[in-house]
Design brief:
With 357 residues, the chain is mainly alpha-helical. The chain is built from ten helices and six strands. The protein starts with a helix and ends in a 13-residue tail after the last helix.
Length: 357
């Protein structure tokens, strides 16, 4: 990197540091909510493929295949002008994930306020809250509404996938997804088309970090990804100064997948690693499983690694071009998992025996 390129990137980071920090806060918050509600769902009946499926690699291949098929289907429907069908499908999936996050949060509030509405009553209230939030999103998809729903949806998905697979399989999933993300953004570029479709439909499968308070997502154009390579002139500051600088968008955008994949490894760590050290988290009480110090340290080490990957990603985003987030985010999270796991538990405790089927 030349001195002029470095100055260009640093100037862009200074110009966007508020939105970059805001995105980092949402990234962290979604994962931490997932950590908090993990005991609420950490039961065999809630694992997507059962207890035996937690070590079967074939399930990871199935999940990755479903992601690819969903992406292709959404792009095909968008090209056919069937945006409302896309919105209906995505709203149903997001509503279910949102309900998963709302249920434990409502349980906490009901307990704090000494309200007993019973199991059926609690579900009815949570379903009503979920429907109300999704309706608000449909009628008024401003950036703070999209982000609120997105953070909660992300935490729900993080937990359900994190408790479904042991860390070794999650890491395999992350590596395969990072390769796919790199190809989809930099090779075929169909992921950019998918992102523009979701922005156009104002769907909370992404997070929005405005550069300033005057920004409104309601007027956001749908070709933000396609126009990301545009540039603006810079004043001449000497022979070594760059003549053009990447155009700074009014907001940063991050797909929920960029939060979900690092978060899955955090949840999987505190779920499946050996119970070493004292209990450090037992808020939910019986019959939930407490979290011990060793797995929790690995989980937070994984989160820290993800944040370091996020910081590296922002130096690339500052160049003004769309970036595949998963290679850096997943890479940082996996490195954080290995380093913190080796220190807290020993590297021999980080491997789980797996099968393909």
């Amino acid at each position: 990197m030349t001195d002029s390129e470095f100055r260009e990137i640093m100037a862009s980071i200074r110009d966007q540091w508020v939105s970059m920090a805001g995105m980092g806060v949402m990234f962290t918050t979604s994962i931490l909510i997932g950590v908090f509600i993990q005991p609420f769902y950490n039961f065999e009946a809630m694992r997507a493929f059962g207890e035996e499926g937690t070590t079967e690699a074939g399930n990871i291949v199935f999940e990755l295949g479903m992601i690819f098929l969903f992406t292709v289907a959404v792009i095909w429907l968008a090209r056919k002008g069937l945006e409302m069908l896309i919105k209906g499908i995505v709203f149903f999936a997001l509503g279910y994930s949102l309900l998963l996050a709302v249920l434990p949060i409502f349980s906490i509030l009901a307990w704090l306020l000494s309200i007993d509405v019973g199991t059926n009553g609690s579900f009815a209230v949570c379903l009503s809250i979920t429907v109300a939030m999704m309706y608000t999103l449909h009628k008024f998809p401003e950036w703070y509404v999209v982000n609120t729903v997105g953070v909660l949806v992300g935490s729900g998905v993080i937990v359900m996938l994190g408790i479904a697979f042991v860390p070794v399989l999650i890491i395999l999933f992350m590596i395969l997804a990072a390769v796919y993300d790199h190809w989809a953004v930099n090779g075929s570029k169909h992921m950019l088309e998918l992102a523009d479709t979701m922005i156009n439909l104002k769907l909370p499968v992404l997070l929005v970090a405005p550069k300033n308070t005057s920004y409104t997502f309601l007027k956001q154009e749908a070709d933000v990804m396609g126009s990301a390579d545009s540039a603006v002139e810079m004043p001449n500051q000497g022979p070594e100064a760059p003549k053009r600088r990447p155009k700074v968008r009014d907001a940063l955008f991050m797909g929920l997948g960029d939060v979900i994949f690092p978060g899955m490894l955090v949840i999987s760590s505190i779920t499946f690693l050996p119970d070493a050290g004292p209990v450090v988290f037992d808020f939910w009480g019986e019959p939930t499983q407490p979290v011990h110090l060793g797995p929790m340290l690995v989980g937070f080490g994984t989160l820290l690694g993800g944040l370091l990957g996020y910081a590296a990603l922002m130096t690339q985003v500052a160049r003004g071009r769309p970036q595949a987030g998963l290679p850096l985010l997943n890479g940082g999270s996996i490195l954080g998992y290995l380093v913190s796991g080796t220190i807290a538990l020993g590297i021999d405790q980080l491997w789980q025996d797996i099968t393909f089927l």
